[in-house]
Amino acid sequence: MSALEDLIASGKPVAGKADGARVVLDQSRWRIMAEHLAGGIYVLSGLWAEPGMVHAALLDGTSGKLAIVSLECPGGSFPALSALHAPAIRLERMIFDLFGLVPEGAPDTRPWLDHGRWSVQHPLGAATVGAPRRQYDFLAAEGEGIHQIAVGPVHAGIIEPGHFRFSANGETVVRLEQRLGYTHKGIEALFRGAELAQAAKLSGRVSGDSTVAYSLAFARAVEDALGVAVPQRAHVLRALVAELERLANHLGDIGAICNDAGFALLQAHCAILRELVLRTAQRCFGHRLMRDVVVPGGVAADLNALAYRELATLVKEIRQRFPDLVELYDGTASLQDRTVGAGIVSPALVRQFAAGGYVGRASGRAFDVRRHVCYPPYDQLEFEVPVLEAGDVNARVWIRIHEVEQSLRLIEQILGLKVEGATHTRVPSGSGEGFALVEGFRGDILAWVRLEAGGRVARCHLRDPSWFQWPLLEAAVEGNIVADFPLCNKSFNCSYSGHDL
Amino acid sequence: MRRLLFKSLIKGPLSEPRQVVMDRSLVASADRLDRAAHKRLGRSLSIRVVDAGSCNGCELEIAALSNAFYDLERFGLRLVASPRHADVLVVTGPVTANMREALERTYFSTPDPKWVVAVGDCAVDGGVFGQSYAVLGGVSKVLSVDLHIPGCPPRPDELLDGLLWLMENAAAGRAAAR
User: Fold this and answer.
1) Inter-chain contact A185–B81, Cβ cutoff 8 Å?
2) Which one of A185, A193, A420, A464 has the minimum C-beta count within 10 Å?
3) What pTM did the predictor assign?
4) Residue A447 phi/psi, 5° resolution?
């Protein structure tokens, strides 16, 4: 029996869940779990709360088993995982800000999402009157000639808001510290008591670039909670929109990274391919970003023969044009000079933080939910999970290039699947708890939901892959020159909105 | 690179200008902008985008305005890096409490005359996030808005059309919420 199975067996299963997917631990077991996380025996895939209780999602990387454990905190506090396991730091700061639960022994107790501008304090907990604004203390970097550069929250490009505080010595970055939370919209509070249809809409607006992946994660969690079996054709169409989203985003990212290295030609060409994907999505699914296509119970769209032909043409066209762009990327020495060796993340850090997506896979962490946890229809499809070891900007570009190729391959296979039948099944209005892990273009998205009688959402937590990628960007930039930060940042392309909730 | 550039030369631009030319609504808009912009702003309009808390969907579509299909610079519309260079502030997202001050400061950094365009359903009235403790609501809760472009997110052609509409009406000195 694995250490994770041991831990689950030692807990008290939550009533109503037959397979014991969530168990309540006692404090001593919670502490043992923290040691296991620090030792890398299994990894932390999420950490969130509700009034009087914290939940942790644990993932066994080898077996692909995902489990949720809880700890009751009647005294309003819990032993901090961050005392032993750094990836929990920001999550625990978020828990304190939103719920008022105190992580005991946490190394960093500064607020995170709460900038002292809300009308309430701990809005999801005791909800007392908002705290007065206090100065935010950035971590110190001391030494001769070290100066600070403050950037944001409003940036020069068309990107989301966040603050970056650089401590630099001349051109070299000594420390980067991020301050996020500017786009905090109180999404978890909006989920409370929401009708299922409204909650599904909300889930698709947590991070706009991953709207399909978020809708899918939420839908699968709801279906897990209610024991709904989705028709096979819905699974197939879901994978189709998910791969189109991945394709569009990777194409956009590859171009944007090259543009940040001062090479606009590739950006121009990649943007054309991205636009072709979005226009095809508009014609086939009625929306360029395919919003609200995936819903609990299935999909809200179907494809006709014409749409099949359009999609096949799209794949053919990208297959024709993309190799030239890859060759151009690979053969341009001035571009490679910027991307090779810039913003390196070590494999050890990626393993510790369990960073998903291209950030993880560019630094040797071969984890892809579609392969290692696996959900339909990926069990019937052939694809490879590209992995590289270098961990630099170049490796993150190459992972995307390979994933574009894999997504094209997947779309071709999906179009070839002759699955007929319904695309949606009715979702009964029941109560229950469920969770799901889904591979978005950026990495693994965790969704956990509890439905109350009447089919409304009692609680919902959506964990963006960026939670475990943002901190690694701080590490990646250290020792690089300030001018390379936009390049490193774009190669991560973390979500602000998904992270800020 | 030479091969790719050569291909573009002999095959005509990859950017498919013909598609844009065939698109009647764009041609009509281009013509409209030309007259209005010339009159008021010497055929150029600088736009500064501020994300006041969006989900980043609107940013994707605004960024798409620069691709070869829409190529907004041929209309004299330019996305600039600083509010101090801007004529228009394009604001996306519901305004979060945490972004309010940054948005106001950006507005005050923009020289007069200036216009504010609220892009997306959230910027219009807060959208699905309107009823949150962390959200103030639409952009008009904080700034006086000259034009709303609804959509979740609005498509690039809708964005372009909206910006051109602003040009006409701003030139006539009667900008108002559409």
Assistant:
1) no
2) A420
3) 0.93
4) -125, 135
Q: Which amino acid, residue A354?
A: A
Tokens of residue A161, six digits: 């808001």
Are the beta carbons of A183 and B93 separated by less than 8 Å? yes
Please report where in the chains the tokens 């869940």 appear, as a residue: A17
ipTM of the complex: 0.94
3-class secondary structure for A220-241? Answer: HHHHHHHCCCCCHHHHHHHHHH
* Residue from B6, B47, B49, B51 whose CB has the most chain A CBs within 10 Å, to mutate: B51
Domains and CATH numbers, chain A: 3-124 (3.30.460.80), 204-465 (1.10.645.10)
Report the amino acid identity of residue B53: G
Chain A window 292-351: which residues touch B at a Cβ cutoff of 8 Å?
324-325, 328, 331-332
In this complex, do B53 and A183 lie within 8 Å of one another by their Cβ atoms? Answer: yes
Q: Which two tokens stand for residue B12?
A: 């005509």
**Half-sphere exposure of residue B144, counting CA atoms within 13 Å on the CB side?**
5
- CA A443 from chain centre, in angstroms, equals 5
Single-letter amino acid, residue A483: A
Judged by CB atoms within 8 Å, which residues 438-497 of A form the interface with B?
A: 495-497
Is residue B146 within 8 Å of B115, Cβ to Cβ? yes
Q: Are A287 and B152 contacting, i.e. CB atoms less than 8 angstroms apart?
A: no
CA distances from A320 to A273, A312, A315 (A): 11, 12, 9
Token pair for A247:
């394709």
Residue count of chain B: 178
pLDDT score, position B18: 31
Residue type, A147: H
Taking only the tens place, the pLDDT of each residue in A118-138 is: 989 999 988 888 777 888 999
